[in-house]
Amino acid sequence: MALERTLSIIKPDATRRNLTGAINDRFEKAGLRIVAQKRIQLTRAQAEAFYGVHKERPFFGGLCDFMTSGPVVVQVLEGEGAVAKNREVMGATDPAKADAGTIRKDFAENIEANSVHGSDSAENAAIEIAFFFAQTEIVG
Ligand code: RTP
Ligand code: MG
């Protein structure tokens, strides 16, 4: 499997509860290397643009409210099959349905405040990484 990169976001419910280090520990123990990272406050426009694919969904407004409710940590994770590996470590969107030992099972509050985002394909990963990072900010 090829070395891949994926975009991860530690969401406001997790930064609020000081879980950044605990979540990063899960990534690193799974063999994902954090090759870029910054803590930022998303603007409403950034949240709406980032989640533009969901704009017709009923949860879109609430999701943008939540994602701008506090700081997030955006990061680039690198590893063999990083996109799928990260989704595996994150667990299902709804923590009630997530497997034991996953980040969402152990830390998420509910289906919306679910602690982490991870790109869902290599193609979207490239788009999402470019949304937040210049090439010079990523050091593999
Ligand atoms: P993500 O994009 O954040 O990695 O999560 P995902 O692929 O597992 O879930 P997705 O379907 O892309 O949904 C994006 C985010 O929207 C919120 N959501 N709320 N209230 C709801 O029913 C609902 N469904 C989704 C979650 O924060 C989800 O991660
Ligand atoms: Mg998604």
UniProtKB/TrEMBL annotation:
EC class (word): transferase
Catalytic activity: a ribonucleoside 5'-diphosphate + ATP = a ribonucleoside 5'-triphosphate + ADP; a 2'-deoxyribonucleoside 5'-diphosphate + ATP = a 2'-deoxyribonucleoside 5'-triphosphate + ADP
Superkingdom field: Bacteria
GO molecular function list: ATP binding; metal ion binding; nucleoside diphosphate kinase activity
Catalytic residues of the enzyme: H117 (pros-phosphohistidine intermediate)
EC number per UniProt: 2.7.4.6
UniProt entry keywords in alphabetical sequence: ATP-binding, Cytoplasm, Kinase, Magnesium, Metal-binding, Nucleotide metabolism, Nucleotide-binding, Phosphoprotein, Transferase
Cofactor(s) it depends on: Mg(2+)
Binding site for ATP: K11, F59, R87, T93, R104, N114
Cited CDD domains: NDPk_I
Subcellular location, principal: cytoplasm
Database matches in InterPro entries: NDK-like_dom (IPR034907), NDK-like_dom_sf (IPR036850), Nucleoside_diP_kinase (IPR001564)
Annotated Gene Ontology cellular component terms: cytoplasm
Domain Nucleoside diphosphate kinase-like: 3-140
Gene Ontology BP, a term: CTP biosynthetic process
UniProt-annotated location(s): Cytoplasm
Matches recorded under Gene3D superfamilies: Nucleoside diphosphate kinase-like domain
Subunit structure comment from the entry: Homotetramer.
Family: Belongs to the NDK family.
PANTHER family found in the cross-reference section: NUCLEOSIDE DIPHOSPHATE KINASE
Function: Major role in the synthesis of nucleoside triphosphates other than ATP. The ATP gamma phosphate is transferred to the NDP beta phosphate via a ping-pong mechanism, using a phosphorylated active-site intermediate.
Record-given protein name: Nucleoside diphosphate kinase
